[in-house]
Specification:
By secondary structure, the protein is an alpha/beta fold. Helix content is 49%, strand content 17%.
Length: 464
């Protein structure tokens, strides 16, 4: 009785090779040996003898789950003095009274990593007992702990590999952004110099032209009877129109140079990706610079509503926060254009009077939560760090498509994206979350309702 074998255990041969972080217990090899608790012990002995790697047997009473007896416990009782005489020919119910054990039951859709955590919570004497897995209301299987631990080990190796890949991808992305920042800073500097020259000289040019016009008027007043050649030249060059249009041209040049100066300044501020120290920065200026850079995508099609509060200067990495604003506002623009395309498609399918009036909008709100007693914003856990005198909140909300609940749980995961291939890397929100939470010890929260829109809230601590 109880023949042993040196062949490889079945669970070693059947352990799936494609396990992932989302793998569940139902993907593992589960044992389904069951026996009525009123049957004699020798039937259990036959099952164990016929299946050398069977970890245990499920005990039933009229088809209902009662418990489980493991191979280890069964052999312990049989090896005791008079154990064979006491239990082999008597109902398993008697044996079960001697070996009654902790009997955790886990659902089949339990994640393997969660199942390991639950299994290791058991007391030391029951730590290596099999685990019951419930497939449905009346169906149970047994899982060998060794297989569970091996599966967890395989997933652990996979997790390490993914973490290494993610870290490498983030390093590459960070290096790309730093290189891009240096390049943009150089371009902004090259633009800034000639723009400053033009902008600084437009006023002098205007003064000089006004002086020349004044001199020309003085000549006309002194020489009222102009020659035929002078009158003909005035008509050819349309002098009256030139004198009227010239101030407008100079004003347009001034406005254009001011616009170029703002764009170059925005690029220069946005390019501070490789900052090594926290510096006081005006968040409103960072947001406005970001909107200025994204203006070619907005193009007057999206309403930008600003509700700025009275913010102090915030110690931060302004370039990195500008990248966060860029990612969040870009995503808002994407979802607004996506919803607009859906609206246009729906408009073509219904009558004009049935079409829904909708205007794409991004609302940016800022405010401060001050005082220790009010440091924690509504809905947030209280912070025990008394070094913080409050929080600065920046909210970026859109009235786009919204985000489904199942996607909201994964929105900040590295490489997770719902955009088509080639349009999204899955790094934007993950890097934004890292910048806010790790670099600035802040929080990045999301509220979204499908079909209504989304709001990202950035919370940055104010040091006392």
């Amino acid at each position: 009785m109880f023949v042993t074998s040196h062949s490889a255990p079945p669970f070693l041969e059947k352990l799936p090779s494609n396990l992932t972080l989302e793998s569940t217990l139902q993907e593992l090899h589960l044992h389904d040996r069951q026996i009525e608790i009123d049957h004699p012990g020798r039937e259990a002995a036959k099952l164990f003898d016929a299946n050398p790697f069977l970890p245990g047997i499920i005990l039933l009473e009229q088809g209902q789950l009662v418990g489980m007896i493991s191979r280890r416990r069964f052999l312990e009782q049989m090896s005791r003095p008079y154990g064979l005489d006491l239990f082999l020919n008597r109902p398993l119910r008697i044996l079960y009274q001697f070996v009654s054990t902790e009997f955790p039951v886990l659902a089949s859709d339990t994640l393997i990593v969660d199942a390991v955590r639950e299994a290791l919570k058991r007391s030391p004497e029951h730590l290596y007992e099999p685990i019951a897995v419930q497939l449905d209301a009346q169906t149970y299987r047994l899982l060998d702990l060794h297989q569970l631990l091996m599966a967890q080990s395989q997933i652990h190796e996979l997790a390490k590999q993914l973490l290494n890949e993610q870290a490498q991808a983030q390093m590459i992305q960070a290096e790309k952004m730093a290189s891009l920042g240096r390049m943009v800073a150089g371009v902004a500097h090259e633009i800034f110099n000639p723009v400053n020259f033009i902008w600084g000289n437009v006023s002098h040019l205007s003064n000089h032209i006004q002086s020349l016009v004044k001199l020309l008027s003085a000549y006309e007043s002194k020489i009222p009877a102009s020659s035929y050649e002078i009158r003909k030249l005035k008509e050819e060059i349309e002098l009256d129109f030139v004198l009227e249009d010239l101030p407008q041209i100079l004003n347009s040049m001034k406005l254009g140079s001011e616009r170029l100066k703002m764009i170059a300044g925005g690029l220069r501020n946005f390019s501070h990706m490789d900052e090594t120290q926290l510096q006081p920065a005006d968040l409103h200026q960072c947001i406005d610079n970001t909107l200025l850079i994204l203006n070619n995508r907005i193009k007057g099609e999206i309403d930008i509503v600003k509700s700025y509060g009275d913010l102090p200067l915030v110690n931060c990495y302004s370039g990195q926060l500008s990248q966060v604003f860029m990612n969040l506002i870009s995503n808002a623009i994407d979802t607004l254009f996506e919803k607009k395309a859906q609206q246009n498609s729906a408009f073509r399918q219904v009558q004009r009077e049935e079409a829904i009036a909708w205007q794409p909008q991004i609302e940016i709100t800022t405010e401060v939560y001050l005082a220790i007693a009010q440091t924690t914003p509504p809905g947030q856990e209280k912070s025990s760090d008394s070094a913080y005198s409050g929080w600065v909140a920046v909210r970026i909300a859109d009235n786009g498509c919204g985000i489904p609940d199942d996607i909201q749980k994964r929105i900040f995961e590295t490489f997770f994206t719902t955009k088509p291939v080639g349009k999204g890397t899955g790094l934007g929100l993950a890097i934004s979350y890292s910048i806010v939470t790790e670099k600035h010890h802040g929080k990045l929260n999301l509220k979204s309702q499908l079909g209504i829109g989304s709001e990202f809230e950035i919370l940055l601590p104010l040091l006392s």
